[in-house]
Amino acid sequence: MTGHRPHRSYRHEAFLYRDAEDFLDGALPFVRDGVAAGQPVMVAVRKSRSDPLREALGADATDVHFVDMAELGLNPARIIPGWRRFLDEHCGDAQPVRGIGEPVWWDRRPHEITEAQLHEALLNLAVDPDTPLWLRCPYEVGTLTGEQLAEAARSHPVLVETGGYAGSHSYGGRQHVDDLFAADLPRPPAAADGVALPAEPADVARLVTRHAAAADLDSERTWALSLAVREVAAATPAGGTLQVWAEPSALICEFRDPEPLSDPMTGRRRPGAAEPDPRGLWLANQMCDLVQVRATPDGTTVRIVTWR
Fold first, then answer.
1. Rounded CA separation 129/8 (Å)
2. Residue 137 in contact with residue 14, Cβ under 8 Å?
3. Please, what are the domains in the chain?
4. DSSP category for residue 288
5. Which of 38, 190, 236, 296 is most buried by a 10 A CB count?
6. How far apart, in whole angstroms, are the C-alpha atoms of residue 171 and residue 101?
7. Residue 1 pLDDT more than 60?
């Protein structure tokens, strides 16, 4: 399954494992071979998976960059920037690198899993094919649904199990990204509160803070949400709307505007110091729990989710 021969191009694999022992059987030689070959390795998984792996690696663990995916991937839109930072630091001069990243697990919230699945599809666009990154994405077969595993096969060209490889017959590539990105979100409830855009920033802030108080958000989270919503509102063209409503588990702020967004990577690339933040989505992704973006023939939907 692994070897010391350096890879020269991007590999994106779904690693299907049964339990903690099977995870180690697949992850440990993959990481050890990378370390032995002098390849930088980043492991972004939950601590329940990283702690046993770190212990099994022994002294080799000091050469591995461990990241808690429960923190990095709290908002799945932050994961690609995390991999980009790793590549920028270690992949110069065509240096081969390896990674393990597990963004989907059984007890994530449904909205988080949906966005993690979009993230996995976007990884096929986010990394240039000539980048020597070997990325293995674990999926725990015994705890995920059949549809979640089928989605893994659609977003990864290669499927790996302990003992062998297989090409994914359902891999969708760019078309799959387009299909996910064009899947509209459910319409807001009829009782949702809202304003037409453009609107005064003070009016937007009052709308958000009023609902945040009703949802019992603390002052720090209210400030972060209000800032993000004002930034997105300022970048939303005329004719758009902002609606706010509460669900049992979350406060939702949703923008809809008639202009379709063409780039599904918007908000996942860090703008340069002199560059604008398209639609305010980079800031929203850094400040908020979850940001969902969809583009349909009717326009663009941006939904900012704050967990209660």
1. 9
2. yes
3. 11-181 (3.40.50.300), 193-307 (3.30.565.10)
4. S
5. 236
6. 19
7. no
In this prediction, residues 98-107 reach a mean pLDDT of 98
Angstrom distance (rounded) from CA 153 to CA 138: 12
**Which residue's structure tokens are 């209660």?**
308
The CA distance from 238 to 68, in Å, is: 40
Residues 264-289: b if buried by 16+ CB within 10 A, e if exposed: bbbbbbeeeeeeebebbbbbbbbbbb
Contact 207, 155 (CB under 8 A): no
Residue type at 151 in one-letter notation: E
Q: What pLDDT, in 10s, does the model give residues 108-166?
A: 999 999 999 999 999 999 999 999 999 999 999 999 999 999 999 999 999 999 878 99
Separation of alpha carbons 262 and 180, rounded Å: 13
**Whether the bond into 52 is cis, omega within 30 of 0:** no
The 64-68 sheet, strands edge to edge = 64-68, 41-45, 97-101, 133-140, 11-17, 158-161, 164-167
pTM equals 0.95
Give the pLDDT score at 4: 53
Retrieve residue 304's tokens: 């900012």
